[in-house]
Amino acid sequence: MAAVKSETFRPFESKVDLDQSLSLLRETLVGADDGELFFERRRSEVLVFDDGRVKNASYDASEGFGLRAVRGETAGYAHSTEISEQALRRAAETARLAVGAGRRDPCRRAASDQPAALYRRGSDGRGRVQRKSRHPAGDR
Fold first, then answer.
1. Spatial CA neighbour of 77 closest among 89, 64, 66
2. Most buried residue among 18, 35, 72, 128 by CB atoms closer than 10 A?
3. Do residues 61 and 102 lie in contact, with contact meaning Cβ atoms separated by under 8 Å?
């Protein structure tokens, strides 16, 4: 059986700049309690034999990264199979938004925010709720 030469995975030498990646990670984690950036490369090869003959053969290779930011009980996570500075920036923005790093939580309403009234109480005396018409001429 022939030996397989293993190529070392070095994303900071061939894909993205180390200093820019660390700077982006620091920016992303402002306001977060913890976080991480990790890179991964996977390769797998499968040979299936039946009665001494190759029945099926497959090879798979994938690489990518994950970026996680944690704040309290909330974790923001983004990943990509493209290892580039642009993909890192998109992932950083997603992780920042998820943990609300330094910003108002977009999922939490301020006390002054009131939901739009979509229903009104019926006039039948039984307190039934009726949907308001969205027709420009009003309820018909």
1. 66
2. 35
3. no
